[in-house]
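Our example copied in:
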Amino acid sequence: MERVQKILSQWGVTSRRQAEKMMIAGRVKINGKVAQLGQKINLEQDQITVDGRLISPKKRPRQLYILVNKPLGVVSTCRDTQNRKTVLDLLPNSLKNGQGLHPVGRLDINSTGALLLTNDGDLTLHLTHPRYHLPKTYEVWIKDNPPESVLEQWRNGVILDQKKTLPAAIKVLKRQREKTLLEIVLTEGRNRQIRRVAEQLGYPVLALHRSAIGALNLKTKDKLLNESGNYRFLTAQEVYYLKQESK
């Protein structure tokens, strides 16, 4: 007997957290009845459907790990109620449909850069858990030219939602008359964190690009991912690296 959300995660349908949201929304059914949080089932006897689609253990897809260079204007979700383009729309139909791929974390619609897609629900759970601090590197244009004192304040942590942010590594890459390019490395991922902190400090974000997730760098692996909208599969070594980082 296994919990429903764990099964959906293990079989690549969605992440465990997203599975719980789907269950609360009534989208998951067991033998025709709406599944309840914490419910356990027997895969040999019970049938699971998600949005009316039967989830069959015999058709479990192989585990996939994909790095995408997300373009501007694309949402980091599997589906969008406003019919906007999603990250799955960047993939061919053979990957987009029936593979259970979902984004690991998010990158807002106005941001670009590195985003992981996988159908490995356990890895998604670990990589998005606050306990783990996989560094993420961003190149951020902000308005005006902040003094070193402001950057040092940002590095040391800023109060956001009544809680101080973790220390951030911040380096000035370029200064122009009315804007500054920063490299920012975060080890946490609060909602729109960089944009909110920059706004709070008085230097709003003009453009935000995630250039790396841990050691997975859009710039150094190959030229393919230099172009927005492209993707590639992770190597076995890179998958091993992510799993080690999330232990």
